[in-house]
Write a structure and sequence with these properties.
single chain, about 475 residues, alpha/beta, Rossmann fold, N-(1-d-carboxylethyl)-l-norvaline Dehydrogenase, domain 2, 2 domains, 8-stranded mixed beta sheet, 21 helices, 11 strands, about 45% helix, about 10% strand, binds D-mannonic acid
């Protein structure tokens, strides 16, 4: 793919990019990857890596939206092309990404099944959000969740199309089995610990509840690859669209803005092949856990802490919250706890990783909104705060800095005007209770084992109100 970049600070590196396939070096690559979750992050990450692979000409992506068709409609008007704005402290660079060759409405389940069952399709990637896997706090598929129940009914009766991403994927995998198109890899790119296993449990759980033979086929033919994905990608704004127009001289209705930093670590098999993503810097490892934990705890953990603490203290973006000493201290203390429990040795380069995070979070030109990060906290805290808290307590320490992240979430859940969470109703009910009972009920929504420990309930209860306006002394 031809990538031409412009430095908006003045110097032009190459000619201006164009949203025009005829000007790109390659014609449309054939669809060999199907993606679920067409959003900004997918475009700045997997689509970018695929466009930079050394065999990019062979790998096109059909990318399906989640709940609404809008992103696919807008992208389809541009033949799938979009501008990636890399926003550094020092300026912007612009590049056209051409790997998405078929932007599609997620509701078009027949097209999804057609593409997943095509023999050329080798990889299915997923960015469907942490909450979409519908695993309960016990780590198993929540077969009582209302959307799981209704998808299973639709699958069983054959009377309509499933509406959840996992239901749609299972439907499409059944079509691949019928077509005899052979094995393929499902690559989970959501921020979950052991995300390949999570995807496996969700997919096989749903398949087994529908059709035992399909579940056996999935077990024998689908490889679930675990990955750690990283690139800060805030939501695109109208100002971003105007910036692209001003710098590039064309109208792109779907640009995506991201930090220059990007990282992808993968572990698992690709039985039908894969793009040579390593040419773009992707790393393939045998043991992903240390990388996963480093990213989930240090980056995502700090993000969640800043999201709740920062908003309680009146901040809007990550960079603003980080500039507040009270929030920064909380992050550093949480990082100390996380670091003490990260195994992986010197290879993980934790001091350099922490320093780089401070610089990445401090990039004030990336307006990364805390409200966006604050969403789905009950699921996110399970990955970001709970493992560190439990590890600290297992070592005989208090885990106070991890507990503070949960306390901030609890305070935020009661104070927020908009509270977006798969358990929002349960959270609202728990918030009607008082004192310790309330804290215990809220903790139980995050992790029942944590809620069962009276000492943790007391610890969290004692930390409530830390980030209230004017509470600077803690
Ligand atoms: C963030 C992530 O919204 C969130 O929960 O923590 O989207 C984060 O920006 C990415 O994982 C960065 O790679």
């Amino acid at each position: 793919m031809s990538i031409e970049q412009t430095d908006v600070t003045g110097k032009t590196a190459g000619s201006l990019p164009q949203l025009d396939r005829t000007l790109n070096v390659f014609a449309k690559p054939p669809v060999r990857i199907v993606h679920l979750g067409l959003g900004a992050f997918h475009r700045s990450h997997q689509a970018w890596y695929t466009s930079q692979a050394s065999d990019a000409a062979e790998w096109g992506i059909a990318s399906f939206t989640g709940r609404r068709p809008d992103a696919a409609l807008a992208l389809a008007e541009q033949d799938g092309l979009f501008t990636l704005v890399e926003r550094a402290d020092s300026g912007d660079t612009f590049a056209v990404v051409g790997s998405i060759v078929e932007p599609a409405d997620g509701a078009d389940v027949q097209r999804l099944a057609e593409l997943v069952s095509a023999p050329a399709t080798a990889v299915v990637t997923l960015t469907v959000t942490e909450a979409a896997y519908r695993l309960g706090a016990d780590g198993q598929l929540d077969t009582a969740a209302s959307d799981v129940v209704s998808d299973l009914a639709l699958l069983a009766s054959g009377s309509g199309n499933p509406s959840t991403p996992l239901g749609r994927l299972v439907f499409a995998l059944a079509a691949r089995r019928t077509a005899g198109a052979g094995p393929l890899a499902v690559v989970c790119c959501d921020n979950l610990a052991d995300n390949g296993m999570v995807a496996r449990k969700a997919v096989t759980g749903l398949a087994a509840a529908w059709d035992a033979e399909l579940a056996a086929w999935v077990a024998a033919n689908v490889s679930f690859v675990s990955t750690s994905v990283d690139r800060i990608t805030p939501r695109t704004t109208d100002a971003d669209i105007a910036a692209v127009e001003a710098a590039c001289g064309y109208r792109d209705n779907s640009p995506v803005v991201a930090e220059p930093f990007t990282n992808w670590v993968l572990s698992g098999d690709f039985p039908a092949g894969r793009p040579r993503w390593e040419a773009a810097g992707a790393v393939f490892v045998d043991h992903i856990e240390p990388y996963e934990n480093r990213k989930l705890w240090l980056l995502n953990g700090a993000h969640s802490l800043l999201a709740y603490a920062g908003q309680l203290r009146g901040h809007t973006t990550v960079a603003q919250a980080l500039a507040d000493p009270q929030c920064l201290n909380a992050v550093e203390s949480f990082w100390d706890e996380a670091e003490a429990n990260l195994s992986g040795g010197a290879d993980l380069q934790i001091p350099a990783y922490r320093a780089a995070l401070l610089a990445r979070f401090g990039n004030a030109r990336i307006a990364h909104h805390l409200a966006q990060i604050a969403m789905d906290g009950s699921t996110k805290l399970r990955m970001r705060a709970v493992p560190v808290l439990l590890a600290e307590r297992a070592q005989g320490r208090s885990g106070a800095a991890s507990a503070l992240m949960i306390a901030a979430w609890i305070d935020f859940s009661a104070a927020a005007e908009t509270f977006h969470d798969p358990l929002a109703i349960e959270v609202a009910d728990a918030n009607k209770l008082g004192g310790t009972e309330r804290v215990q009920a809220l903790l139980a929504l995050v992790d029942p084992a944590v809620a069962a420990e009276d000492a943790v309930v007391e610890l969290v209860a004692g930390l409530l109100g830390t980030f209230a306006a004017g509470a600077d002394s803690r």
